[in-house]
Amino acid sequence: MATRDVVFPADRHALYERHRYSPAVRVDGFLFVSGQVGSREDGSPEPEFELQVRRAFENLNAVLAAAGCTFDDVVDVTVFMIDPASRFERAWAIVPEYWGAAPFPTATVVGVTWLAGFDFEIKVVAKLPEAAAS
């Protein structure tokens, strides 16, 4: 197996070590970002849902920045959410603060029953800028 080209944000979060995963891996011009949750640096969740959503996006943006990307480079988004029937609109009211203008990436939202103590998780695939891809 080839060595993975792993990307870590400047402030590594406790969850990466605790759960043994990489925040992102570069492969063939793409960046595959693990699900980012609304965790504080110590791995604990933000207590309020809206703050968790914002923190998840901030954590995502830190990983993207470490790879030389921004959300504009994101081509695919998957969101996992506890109780989306009552929370989807609250989460999606925050999305424009981070997604910017159209055209938007593809997106899938999945309702789940468990996210290790969190209520919202976002994972993405981004196209690396040409300079970073080489």
UniProtKB/TrEMBL annotation:
SUPFAM superfamilies named among the record's database cross-references: YjgF-like
One MF term in the entry's GO annotations: deaminase activity
Pfam families assigned: Ribonuc_L-PSP (PF01042)
GO CC terms, sorted: cytosol
Annotated Gene3D superfamilies: RutC-like
PANTHER family: 2-IMINOBUTANOATE/2-IMINOPROPANOATE DEAMINASE RIDA, RUTC FAMILY PROTEIN YJGH
Designated name of the protein: Enamine deaminase RidA
